[in-house]
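Z., the sequence and structure:
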Amino acid sequence: MLSKIISDVDAFVWGPVMLVLLVGTGILLTIRCNFLTWRNLPWAIIKTLSKESRTKNRGEGDVSPFSALTTALAATIGTGNIVGVATAMVSGGAGALVWMWISACFGLSSKFSECMLAIKYREVNEKGEMSGGPMYTMKKALKNKKLGAVLGWLFALFAVIASFGIGNMTQGNSISTAVHETFGVSVSTVGAVITILALLIIIGGIKTISKVSSVVVPVMAIFYVIAGVIVILGNISNLPAGLSMIFHMAFSVKAVGGALCGNIVASMMNAARYGVARGCFSNEAGMGSAAITAAAATTDHPVRQAYINMTGTFWDTIVVCTITGLAIASSGVLGQIDPATGEMYIGSALTIAAFSTVLGKVGGYLVTIGIALFAFSTILGWEYHGEKAFEYLMGTHKFNMIYRIIFSLVAYVGATQTLELVWNFSDIANALMAIPNLICMLLLSGEIAKDVKEFQKTIEEEKAGK
C-alpha cells in the first residue's frame, strides 16, 4: 500500500506540471537574458577547456573553475546517460532524443542562473571553506526573509534526502547489478569495494573529490564517447534512417513506428514527456544541485564561473546522451526482443545490445565499465552536494565528517539491496528540490538578467583582446 502511494506521488511530481515548470523557467530565463547564454556558449566552452580554468589565479575559492565543473559533472554524468536514454527511447520512441536536446537548450539558462546566484551569495564557513548553493541564495537574496528562510530550509532537507537516494543508493545498485551480470562478481563484494573507495576519497572533502573528479570525469567521458562513435560508424549505413526516424517520431501527432524501431510505436506527446523527463533528470538543470559545487570555485566574477558550469548541460546531454541515442538508433536493436529473456530490450540491456552490434562481447564490457565509472563518480559528486546541504541544516561544519562516514556506508546498502520504495522516495525528493530553486530563480530573474548584460562588456573586451 505504502509503495503504491509513493509510486503514485513519484509519477505525479515528475509529471507534466513539473516538466512544464522546469522547461518553462529555462525558456523565461533564456528570453530575459536576451539569449546570451546561447550566444556565449562557444566562448564558455573555450574558457572551460583553457589552461587558465585549471588554475586558481583569478579570484577566491576552494578549487579551480575546471575542478568545480568536473565535480558537478561527476554528479550529473551518471547512469541517466546510458540507462536513462535507453529507457526514454523505449518508453517515448526514438523521438525522445530530440526532446532531450530541446530541454537541454533551455536548461543551459537554468544551470547558468542557479550557479551564478550561488557564487554571488556564497559564504565562508568557520573552517575557511566556501559554502554556497540555492539555500544560501534563498536566505540572503529574496526580499521576503521569512519566505527565503523556509525555501532554503526545504531545499537543503530535500537535497540531503536526494543525496542518499538518487545520489548514492541507486548508483551503488546500478554498479553492483551491472558488474554482477557481466563479470559474475557478487553484489556484496562490489558493495564493499564501492564503500571503501568512496570513504577513502570522501574523507578528504571537496579538494580530494575535485582532484579525483577532474581526472576520472574527462577520461571516462572521452572513453565512452570514442566507443560510441565506433559503434555509430560501424552502423553508418543505418544512420540516415535512424536520424529520420528520430525526427519523425519527435514531431508526429499520431502514434508512429519506424523501420529501425521494431515493436515501438509512440507519439509526439510520449516522446516529449519521456525526453524532457530523462533530459532534466540527466543534466539536473533547474534542480539546484550543481550550484552547490559551483560555489566552491575560484573566480573573480559569479557570471564568469556560471558560464563555465553551464557547459555541464552541454557536455552531459548534447554530447554524452546523444552518443548513446545515436548508437541505439543506428544499431537496429531498438524495439527488438532479447533472446535471453524473451522480452523487449530495455535499460542497460538495450545499450549493451547496441554496442555489441559492432564491438561484440567487448561492447557489453565497455558499457558495464562505463556504468560503473559514471555511477561511482555520481556518488562522489552528490556527497558534496548533500554535505553542504547538511551543513546548512546544522548551522555548522562540525558534523560533516559524521555525514561523510554514514554516506559511504549507505553505498553498501544500496549495492546489496533493491529498495524500490527508497528509490521512488528519493526520486520525489529530487523533484521537490527543484521547486524552491525554480521559485527562487523566477523571483530573481530580473537580477540575473541585469548581471548577465553587465558582464557582456567584459566578454566583448576579452574577445577583442584576442
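The mean pLDDT is 87. Residues 145-183 form the longest helix (39 residues).

Let me know what you think.
H.
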